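From the methods appendix. Each design record in this collection lists the tokenized structure first, followed by the designed amino acid sequence. Records were kept in a plain field format so they could be parsed without special tools. The example shown here is representative of the layout used throughout.

RECORD:
FOLD TOKENS (466 positions):
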């Protein structure tokens, strides 16, 4: 895969990381090379000065051994041997009188009075000076030092050899420096590209998804921890989006289906009323049926809104101290007539008092929905029991019935909106009851669980923190 061009190249992370990496690497290399060069320069110059001092020592020894004449002979011999433009030597008195000298005409005016003054005052045992060498760009070094009573030697030498030697190093350093710039840019580009290629995978996947390929996932590579995390987070997000999309599609289909039936019925009723003349009583009947169907529609829409509000946190639960026992008893009393009609016995097993912090209306809806289901899905002559109690700081309310039970294949779906078991469709519900129970329970930080065996019965348990 190649990194796609993203407009202005200077705005790309690849470019900036490469420049940053190359910049840091180059600057570090430059600093090391400069430090190294200065150290080399200092050492070379120190060596040279020591050579000068060695030369002065040599003259001192000749002075001791052979006297002033010996030194003069030595300088005379030197004048014949050495190139006067590269080196000169001369003997002076402390007053500046020249005793003997090699040819220094090419050196121009060679300073002596200041150095002699320093030596006379005893401030330093010798004096070093730097100056330009004759007729070249090289620099030169001059030492002035006493070698006997009122005898001072002055030696000057160009630094051609040392400077040539340092220049070779400088050239190598420059060469190395440019090689480093190229190498660090290439390495920086390579490193940044490696990291960004993995990121590019995420972008590519996002692009594919934006075109509708929701099954695509990022290949999570083990190379960089941060990118690995980005990839897995992205994949988790995609899983969630996909499941949300799936459930939204299902809910939409279910809404369409469940709204269509009452609407079709309303239309049918209206059509029938137009067909032939009817009595006032018959028209009243038609109106009543229409109202009934409309109520059913309104109830569906209201319940959906309630679920959505509870799930999204728009309707915050109104928390108060509640005694659960009387609420359950009230609900049982309310459902007693329907239960009696089906010869179903409702058994309560409740403590005298069971308090917790919750929303009264929401808890009432949870209890009535679960009780309603228990009675609805229990055949004649069965039993429904409600038990409530506390267990390790939690309140449990259990609804148990001896009804038709729920097949294992339905269990994972019963809390989804509009989901109805096959055998339940004829029983009048719309499949929103348990969704509402779940949304309200979770809004009060509780959980709802179900255990069921087909043909034996079901047990729904809602648990809240006390
Ligand atoms: P419905 O309006 O169909 O009752 P619910 O959301 O209340 O919708 O329940 C969803 C499905 O769960 C029901 O259609 C039914 O198949 C199953 N169900 C719920 N409660 C019980 C129960 N006590 N016994 C057997 N099946 C149940």
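DESIGN:
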């Amino acid at each position: 895969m190649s990194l796609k061009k993203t407009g202005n190249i200077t705005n790309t992370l690849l470019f900036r990381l490469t420049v940053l990496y190359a910049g840091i690497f180059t600057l570090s290399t430059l600093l090391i090379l400069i430090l190294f060069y200065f150290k080399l320069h200092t050492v070379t110059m120190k060596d040279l000065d020591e050579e000068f001092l060695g030369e002065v020592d040599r003259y001192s020894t000749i002075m001791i051994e052979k006297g002033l004449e010996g030194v003069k002979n030595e300088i005379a011999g030197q004048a014949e041997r050495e190139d006067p433009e590269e080196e000169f030597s001369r003997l002076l008195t402390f007053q500046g009188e020249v005793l003997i000298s090699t040819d220094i005409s090419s050196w121009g005016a060679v300073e002596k009075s200041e150095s002699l003054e320093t030596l006379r005052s005893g401030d330093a045992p010798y004096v070093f000076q730097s100056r330009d060498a004759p007729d070249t760009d090289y620099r030169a070094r001059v030492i002035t030092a006493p070698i006997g009573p009122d005898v001072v030697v002055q030696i000057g030498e160009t630094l051609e050899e040392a400077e040539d030697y340092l220049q070779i190093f400088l050239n190598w350093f420059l060469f190395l420096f440019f090689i480093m710039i190229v190498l660090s840019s290439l390495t920086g580009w390579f490193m940044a590209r490696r990291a960004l290629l993995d990121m590019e995978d995420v972008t590519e996947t996002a692009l594919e998804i934006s075109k509708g390929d929701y099954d695509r996932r990022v290949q999570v590579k083990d190379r960089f921890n941060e990118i690995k995390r980005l990839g897995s987070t992205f994949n988790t997000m995609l899983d969630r989006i996909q499941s949300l999309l799936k459930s939204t599609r299902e809910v939409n289909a279910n809404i369409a289906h469940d709204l269509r039936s009452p609407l079709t019925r309303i239309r049918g009723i209206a059509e029938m009323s137009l067909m032939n003349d009817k009595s006032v009583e018959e028209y009243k009947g038609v109106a009543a049926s229409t109202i009934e169907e409309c109520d059913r529609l309104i109830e569906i829409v209201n319940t959906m809104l309630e679920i959505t509000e509870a799930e999204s946190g728009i309707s915050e639960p109104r928390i108060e101290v509640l005694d659960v026992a009387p609420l359950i008893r009230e609900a049982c009393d309310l459902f007693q007539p329907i239960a009696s009609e089906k010869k179903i016995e409702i058994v309560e097993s409740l403590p005298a008092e069971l308090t917790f912090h919750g929303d009264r209306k929401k808890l009432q809806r949870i209890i009535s929905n679960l009780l309603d289901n228990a009675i609805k899905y229990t055949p004649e002559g069965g039993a429904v029991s409600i038990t409530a109690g506390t267990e390790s700081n939690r309140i449990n309310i259990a609804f148990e019935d001896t009804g038709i039970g729920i097949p294992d294949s339905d269990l994972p779906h019963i809390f989804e909106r509009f989901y109805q078991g096959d055998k339940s469709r004829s029983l009048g519900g719309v499949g929103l009851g348990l969704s509402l129970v779940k949304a309200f329970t979770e809004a009060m930080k509780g959980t709802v669980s179900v255990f069921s065996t087909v043909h034996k019965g079901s047990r729904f348990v809602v648990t809240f923190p006390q």
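APPENDIX NOTE: The longest helix spans residues 13-81.
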